[in-house]
Specification:
This protein has 67 residues and is an alpha+beta fold. It has one domain. It has helices spanning 35-45, 50-66, and strands spanning 8-10, 17-19, 23-24, 32-33. Strands 1-2 form a two-stranded antiparallel ribbon. It has a two-stranded antiparallel ribbon with strand order 3-4. A hairpin with a 6-residue loop joins β1 and β2 (17-19). 9% of the residues are buried. It binds zinc ion. Zinc ion is lined by residues 11, 13-14, 16, 33-34, 36-37.
Length: 67
């Protein structure tokens, strides 16, 4: 089993520093972005409004940080 190293990276989309596994941007399919932007892009693609995206992310963060 290969373990993924926790590397610090900067998201080119929002400029935030993030650790761990990046998401692949849907816009060009090659850019690595932070998980938050990855989630936002997926929600965007199914027609979720920006306000709702922020609400969903807040819920995700709440559960994620609780781990
Ligand atoms: Zn980002």
């Amino acid at each position: 089993m290969k373990t993924i190293e926790k590397q610090k990276a900067v998201c080119p989309k929002c400029g935030a520093e993030y650790f761990g596994r990046p998401a692949l941007s849907r816009t060009d399919g090659t850019t690595l972005i932070c998980t938050d932007c990855g989630i936002k892009e997926s929600l965007d693609s199914i027609g979720i409004s920006k306000a709702e995206q922020d609400e969903i992310l807040a819920v995700i963060h709440k559960h994620y940080n609780a781990e």
